[in-house]
Design a protein that fits this description.
This protein has 334 residues and is α/β, with parallel strands linked by helices. It is built from six helices and twelve strands.
Amino acid sequence: MTFIHSDETRDSIHCPRIDMVPVIEKRFVLAHVSDPHISCLDQIKKSDLLNKRLLGYLRWKLHRGAEHREEILTILLKDLQRIRPDHITITGDLTHLCLPAEFKKVQKWLRSLGSPTQVTVIPGNHDTYVGTDWRQTFAYWLDYMVSDSGYQQNGPVKGLGDLFPTLRVRGQIALIGVCTAHPSALHLATGSIGTPQLKKLETVLRQTAAQRLFRIISIHHPPISGIVSWRRRLTDAEALYTVLARYGTELILHGHVHKTAPHNLHTQAGLTTVVGAPSATSSSRIYERRARYYVYKINACRGGWDVQLTERIYSPDGDSFIPERLQHFYIPAR
């Protein structure tokens, strides 16, 4: 089986429209943000760099630091406060070097976005650059990652493996978090889901499909091959595809690519829309890499779902986020 099912055109996430009769339900508005790469390099010690962090530090000093502007997050916050989404999903790389100070700084930023019930966090490879003490790092974000109380796993949480996949249900929307983050070799930025998590994910997809929920998988590494190089790939994408072929999902959101990345994923269970977001702090002159986030307005319709997607891009001229593109597409019920 070859895991290349992407449509590369900018209009690839458009689906044919059919006559729809809206169901009387509250519209759900979801904002997708990714890869802010919040740093604390002014607090770094030499001992912090005696590992893979040294490469990330050098890259930041050579070029990334000039591209990523944390002040854009303040502009983003004001825009989100105006949009007022029902929920915000952040698909990884919240930190740059996974320093404890960065985790604390990110916690403060998360609190500015909303309560843990309104914001969901999925870790990225930069958040697991090296092995760290849970209590000094991810414990600060636990409330933003954990499943709803009715879906939490038994026992204490001592690591990401005790958490994922996560499930948060908001009305007719199932927010499913998948973790691909783990420390990798010096020259790699790969991710993997792992067999235990895939088995649990299969159960979650089956149960939420039976409940006829609109399922949104949030993941850091893109689930489609060819989007990133082999050294940045999702190593068990084939295994994920097998699970999706059985039970499907309506929407997949990811980060990692640092550019806008809309695709379609074709499986035996049907068509799935896949959208990758660039870094939320990028001031890049390259259009596809410039900071943006996505707003999804999801309405249940008889026979499926009506989705309105607004792409909001950072405008250096106005120092603000502005609407760049508006799309409508229809997702049939499975």
